[in-house]
């Protein structure tokens, strides 16, 4: 069309339909491309995030600041399939403090109460905590991150423990109440490593230095709290 004949005009219905078709194809292509990249980002979905939704494979639950209750009614919680999440201060665990010394921070706890197909009431639990434990070589504190899951079968007496399926650890419920702190502390103590070491590149005492003299080995063995615990256990 010659330059002088070109004039602006309102778009007609054919122009609008063509434009809508282009937008729709672009939207579908965009959604498909982003989905293949592992994200939920499109004009139809507003959940464009990395770790803020539980259905995202990279989801990380935020650290709980709610303290776990001291005691619960586990039979009722199991009947209702309820779930508890909270924290327990490490300073509230006297047996842990006795084993590894005073600790800062809290243990993050999740407890899911339920009934299995055989009618067994149980607690599925998860724990995570950070400790400072002495290195077996240099006796200096080092950070140790611990995480573990467990499955407890609820019973009313020791006599019923033998009847539990092997996948369950027994936990005794007395007077329809369960004290949670001893349960959590038991599981923490069970997952403590017997010994911990710094990486050799980070430890002020090298392996060669220990092996070169018996005096150094005897000092480490005598002062190490885990060695004391083992000696008491063997008496």
What does this structure look like?
The protein is an alpha+beta fold. The chain folds into two domains: 11-60, no CATH class; 71-234, no CATH class. The protein has seven helices and seven strands. The longest helix has 24 residues, at 13-36. The protein is flat, with a radius of gyration of 30 Å. Residues 26-62 and 214-218 have low confidence and may be disordered.
What is the gist of this entry?
This protein is of the alpha+beta class and 235 residues long. 31% of the residues lie in helices and 23% in strands. It has two domains: 11-60, no CATH class; 71-234, no CATH class.
Give the SSE map:
Layout: H1 13-36, E1 71-72, H2 74-79, E2 83-89, H3 94-100, E3 106-115, E4 121-134, E5 141-155, E6 169-172, E7 178-179, H4 180-190, H5 207-211, H6 214-223, H7 225-234
Parallel strand pairs: 5-6
Antiparallel strand pairs: 1-7, 2-3, 3-4, 4-5
Helix residue percentage: 25-40%
Oligomeric grouping of the chains = single chain
Shape designation: flat
Provide the domain count: 2
Low-confidence stretches: 26-62, 214-218
Q: Could you say which structural class the secondary elements and strand pairing correspond to?
A: alpha+beta
């Amino acid at each position: 069309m010659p330059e002088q004949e070109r004039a602006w005009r309102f778009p007609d219905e054919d122009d609008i339909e063509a434009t809508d078709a282009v937008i729709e194809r672009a939207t579908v292509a965009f959604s498909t491309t982003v989905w293949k990249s592992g994200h939920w980002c499109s004009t139809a979905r507003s959940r464009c995030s990395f770790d803020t939704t539980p259905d995202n494979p990279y989801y990380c639950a935020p650290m709980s600041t709610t303290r776990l209750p001291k005691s619960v009614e586990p039979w009722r919680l199991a009947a209702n399939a309820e779930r508890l999440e909270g924290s327990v201060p490490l300073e509230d665990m006297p047996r842990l403090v006795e084993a590894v010394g005073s600790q800062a921070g809290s243990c993050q706890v999740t407890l899911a109460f339920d009934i299995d197909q055989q009618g067994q009431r149980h607690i599925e639990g998860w724990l995570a905590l950070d400790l400072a434990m002495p290195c077996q070589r240099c006796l200096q504190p080092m950070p140790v991150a611990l995480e573990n899951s467990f499955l407890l079968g609820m019973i009313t007496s020791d006599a019923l423990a033998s009847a539990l399926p092997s996948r369950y650890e027994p936990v005794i419920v007395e007077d329809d109440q369960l004290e949670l702190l001893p349960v959590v502390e038991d599981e923490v103590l069970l997952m403590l490593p017997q010994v911990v070491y710094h990486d050799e590149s980070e430890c002020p005492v090298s392996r060669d230095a220990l092996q070169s003299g018996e005096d150094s080995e005897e000092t480490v063995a005598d002062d190490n709290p885990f060695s004391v615990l083992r000696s008491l256990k063997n008496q």
